[in-house]
Amino acid sequence: MTARIRWVGWLCALLLLTSGAAMAQKNDPCAGCHKDWSKVLPKDHAAVNGGFQQCRTCHKTGTDGTASVNGFATRLHKTHAAGEHKLACDTCHSWVDGKSFGLIGEDANLGPVKKEDLALMQQKMVTWADGPFTDHLHAKAKVDCAGCHAKPVPVSDATVENPRCLECHGPVEKLAARSANKEFPKRNPHASHYGSDIACTSCHKAHEASVVMCADCHKLWKLNIPGAAK
């Protein structure tokens, strides 16, 4: 009887340890892969003992959807979205097909994401992390998905409206001053005859090559645009 009680006690302890580890991983998107934080943190970084939850006490994850730079979220996505460490989105993100998309360990629901939308997001993250288009220019400037798309997370027909772009790049007068052509004053794409009705995305494509829409009519104009096809 004593041996049986001892065996049951050890089994219960093992179950508690296992369930505790599973619960920790369930609430920590990093726990499954990173056991030793010292191997992934910068050398001058303070010690981290509380897992991803401790990271969040200092760093923003991007789930607030603000138009701003976010070095923490950008580094995480660039590291895990492409290259040798490329992972599926739902490795770190909680996801229920067509119902919710969030971050493991957080309550935020960033919107209903279908299976096909998740696959598209995964594909777009590759060019964002390491590609020739404007999205990668934003990645280098530490702007993550939420920096442009806000909430909810973008799906296949998502776009970015002018006010969102202008939160970082505006006002329009500032853009017009930057793109002014002293030799040919009328050749200013940000002070065109379309006025403010033209969408930024008419020229500035994020996940594909950008184009100079002016050149559709003004064949002789020579205008350079970031993220254009090489």
Structure description:
This protein is an all-alpha fold and 230 residues long. Among the domains are: 67-154, no CATH class; 159-230, Flavocytochrome C3, Chain A (Flavocytochrome C3, Chain A, domain 2). The chain contains 8 helices and 2 strands, in the order αααββααααα. It has helices spanning 2-27, 51-55, 71-81, 115-130, 134-140, 145-149, 162-169, 172-178, and strands at 95-96, 100-101. Strands 1-2 form a two-stranded antiparallel ribbon. α3 (71-81) packs across α4 (115-130) and α4 crosses α5 (134-140). The longest helix is centred in the first third of the chain and has 26 residues, at 2-27. Residues 8-25 have low confidence and may be disordered.
Please state roughly what percent of the residues sit in beta strands, choosing from under 5%, 5-15%, 15-25%, 25-35%, 35-45% or over 45%.
under 5%
The separation of the N and C termini measures 78 Å
Low-confidence stretches: 8-25
Coarse shape: elongated
Radius of gyration: 23 Å
Assembly status:
single chain
Strand arrangement across the biggest beta sheet: 1-2
Largest sheet: 2 strands, antiparallel
Mean pLDDT score, rounded?
A: 85
Number of E-type strands: 2
State the share of residues found in helices, binned by percent: 25-40%
Q: Given the helix and strand composition, which structural class is it?
A: mainly alpha
Order of helices and strands: HHHEEHHHHH
The DSSP helix count reads: 8
